[in-house]
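Subject: Sanity check before I submit

Could someone independently write out the structure tokens for this chain? I want to compare against mine line by line before I put it in a report. The sequence has 223 residues.
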Amino acid sequence: MGAVIGDILTLALGVAISPIPIIAAILMLLSPKARVTGTGFLLGWVLGIVVAVTVFTLLSSVLPEGDEDASQPIKGVIQLVLGVLLLLLALRQWRGRPKAGAEPALPKWMQAIDTITFPKALGLGFLLSAVNPKNLLLAASAGVTIGAAGLDAGSIVVVIAVFTVIAASTVLVPVVGYLIAAEKLRGPLDALRGWLAKENAVIMAVLLLVIGVAIIGKGVGSF
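---
Independent answer below. Compare away.
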């Protein structure tokens, strides 16, 4: 189990370091209904991560088991495909980065954050974690790793829980922190939002490149 947790740590960090969801969470925390919408977004974010990883874990568990030292071509092909897709996303992010001096373009739905309700915040958190293409690829990679490891049910639950806590941490920390000390965090959160908005494309491009190369390496090693 320890080896599997080690293998999915980078993937969990890939989900955690997602500027757009963090910016969305911060905007909600700076809105009039901060406590309601922030909590709803966090719950949706966590739920989406759990659902995505669990689904891919169950799907990958049907892969034929084999000796860890033997060739695993099916697993290798899946990892190679996922790695290449992550590299393509990295290229897209890099090419879409704002030019020097230009203001970064953020999703239009962020303009309506002040009027968002709890159900909508919950749904938004779920969509950004479970349906977002980048997170889906990372969840699929984690699911393949977990499902193909031959762990018992209890160990799988623990591994998914560890993955979820790490992946959700960057939304969990500001939301919980705001609930505890709202006034003290307004300034730092606004500054962080501005920096993330400016560097979003570069952060994601580098992150996806590193993870994509790592997954391709694992795929090659499976043959």
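---
OP: Matches mine. For the report I'm noting this point. DSSP finds eight helices and no strands in the chain.
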